[in-house]
């Protein structure tokens, strides 16, 4: 359905969570839903679950309950809030080790029919029939989520039934794999002599992503900065690798990753927790506990900075054909499970790049060396270790070194001079104000905001305690006025630094050129398979 990339995920996730646009005032005046769960205490048993924690989240008018499913170890977070727009999501840690797009193709394929709903595409049939305010499925770098929101209790139950069956008992038919993943098909189905081409929903989606030079740039920068494990590959799928995925590998990936022991359930709203647990417990009855999928290790730190050159097709619409380079410097920040440190890092990212008075805007964008920030500029916390990147788009080749030099000098200047107090105070004030004005579909936004930290075994409830985080930050800043400067030095004067340069040049191998060469090589592959087969037969015949 949707592939989450840095382009369309909140660039400063925590800050964005705290600064939702005030589209709808959703302050809750009743506390019935919260009062119901306030009676629970750690150790209580509830429909096959054990209550671990019950905690108030005053900033968001939530009472949070953490539970574990006794039989499978599945985790459950319930955010009780007197909001009628209830949300459900189930999220799996999915850590691919190749770029075949297996988590993305699986996310599409499980929605094509399940044991209880063997009809074609039950998910899409529900889209038109349900009263849901939101339905989707999302593939991120290291998790896959199935969320929905609904204001109607019966509809919520029906959707939960469809989602649970899709996730835990999908049919994953070969035909669905060919439709959603990839297949070879004649360009004209009525003409057997027409050329053969690659088709498939995910294949085409990713072809679109990879033909966009800015998406390609962000993807390659991520792969190169965190090369040693799952972030070194393309979770959504690189079209040149998608075509080597088999149906069997897809089924294996499901068996390994879509298991309750590797699942995190989230429910939000005013509907009773007990009925959610009762339903999920019944659905998980046939499973027993297994080892959850592999934890993502920390990236080994480099001894010296690295450089990466990326090629892409030239932009025919570029205002100045001489300015066809994108350059950025990328840094690894804190582990996102360290909620407070991650907050400081996100504040740094914001203060460094946001607004016309920020140091990088003044030094880089106003230098006139490029047209705008590079597409990866900003703070990103969708990987186990957060990233800060800054750079420029549409730069002349001769100016590339100058851009890198300005970035280095700006970092030194910030370490020396710090940030203006008024900017820091304005940001903290903005965060405070936004807590009183939360936008629509709050439950889904909360699910997305907590997903990455929780996925790496961080504490999702701590992530919601905005007031506590802000108080601590203000205190620490009072104690040590150079705190932010020291953090800039700590994170941006390191050796694990990637200088990423993208050239746009005419010789770039486009996907259609690749497709042509691949079809030929596949033909050769088929020929060699025939050869192997015939020699095998020959061998049998002789013996
Ligand atoms: Zn998709």
Automatic annotation (TrEMBL):
Main localisation: mitochondrion
Residues annotated as domain Peptidase M16 C-terminal: 244-429
GO CC, alphabetical: mitochondrial matrix
GO MF term list: metal ion binding; metalloendopeptidase activity
Entry keyword set: Hydrolase, Metal-binding, Metalloprotease, Mitochondrion, Protease, Zinc
Residue stretches making up the Peptidase M16 N-terminal domain: 96-177
Localisation: Mitochondrion
Signal peptide: none
Cofactor(s) required, per the database record: Zn(2+)
InterPro entries recorded: Metalloenz_LuxS/M16, Pept_M16_N, Peptidase_M16_C
GO process annotations (BP): protein processing
Family stated for the protein in its record: Belongs to the peptidase M16 family. PreP subfamily.
Protein name: Presequence protease, mitochondrial
Lineage: Eukaryota, Metazoa, Spiralia, Lophotrochozoa, Mollusca
């Amino acid at each position: 359905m949707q592939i989450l990339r840095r382009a369309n995920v909140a660039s400063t996730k925590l800050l964005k969570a705290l600064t939702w646009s005030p589209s709808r005032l959703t302050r809750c005046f009743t506390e019935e839903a919260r009062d119901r769960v306030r009676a629970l205490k750690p150790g209580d048993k509830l429909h096959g679950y054990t209550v671990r924690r019950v905690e108030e989240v005053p900033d968001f008018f939530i009472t949070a309950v953490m539970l574990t499913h006794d039989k499978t170890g599945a985790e459950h977070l319930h955010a009780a809030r007197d909001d009628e727009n209830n949300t459900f999501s189930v999220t799996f840690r999915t850590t691919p080790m190749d770029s075949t797009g297996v988590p993305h193709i699986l996310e599409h394929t499980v929605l094509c029919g399940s044991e209880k709903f063997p009809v074609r595409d039950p998910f899409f049939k529900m889209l038109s029939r349900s009263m849901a305010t939101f339905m989707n499925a999302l593939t991120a770098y290291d998790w896959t989520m199935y969320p929905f929101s609904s204001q109607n209790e019966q509809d919520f139950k029906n959707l939960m039934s469809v989602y649970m069956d899709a996730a835990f008992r999908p049919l994953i038919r070969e035909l669905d794999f060919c439709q959603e993943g990839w297949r070879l098909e004649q360009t004209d189905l009525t003409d057997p002599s027409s050329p053969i081409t690659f088709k498939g929903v995910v294949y085409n989606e990713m072809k679109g992503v990879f033909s966009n030079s800015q998406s390609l740039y962000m993807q390659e920068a991520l792969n190169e900065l965190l090369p040693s494990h799952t972030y070194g590959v393309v979770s959504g799928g690189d079209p040149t690798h998608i075509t080597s995925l088999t149906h069997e590998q897809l089924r294996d990936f499901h068996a390994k990753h879509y298991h309750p022991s590797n699942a995190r359930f989230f429910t939000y709203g005013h509907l009773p927790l007990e009925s959610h647990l009762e339903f999920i417990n019944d659905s998980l009855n046939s499973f027993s506990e297994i080892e959850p999928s592999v934890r993502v290790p920390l990236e080994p730190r480099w001894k010296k900075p690295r450089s990466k050159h990326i090629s892409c097709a030239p932009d025919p619409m570029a205002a100045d054909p001489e300015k066809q380079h994108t350059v950025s410097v990328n840094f690894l920040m804190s582990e996102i499970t360290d909620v407070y440190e991650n907050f400081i890092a996100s504040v740094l990212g914001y203060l460094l790049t946001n607004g016309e008075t920020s140091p990088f805007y003044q030094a880089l964008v106003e230098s006139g060396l490029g047209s705008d920030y590079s597409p990866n500029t900003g703070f990103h916390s969708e990987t186990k270790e957060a990233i800060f990147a800054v750079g420029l788009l549409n730069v002349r080749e001769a100016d590339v070194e100058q851009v890198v030099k300005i970035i280095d000098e700006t970092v030194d200047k910030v370490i020396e001079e710090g940030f203006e107090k008024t900017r820091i105070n304005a940001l903290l004030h903005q965060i405070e104000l936004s807590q009183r004005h939360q936008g629509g579909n709050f439950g889904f936004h909360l699910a997305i905001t907590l997903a990455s930290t929780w996925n790496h075994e961080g504490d999702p409830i701590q992530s919601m305690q905005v007031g506590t985080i802000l108080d601590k930050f203000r205190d620490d800043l009072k104690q040590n006025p150079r705190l932010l400067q020291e953090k800039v030095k700590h994170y941006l004067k390191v050796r694990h630094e990637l200088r990423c340069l993208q050239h746009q040049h005419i010789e770039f191998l486009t996907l259609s050129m690749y497709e042509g060469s691949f079809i030929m090589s596949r033909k050769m592959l088929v020929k060699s398979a025939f050869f192997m087969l015939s020699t095998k037969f020959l061998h049998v015949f002789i013996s």
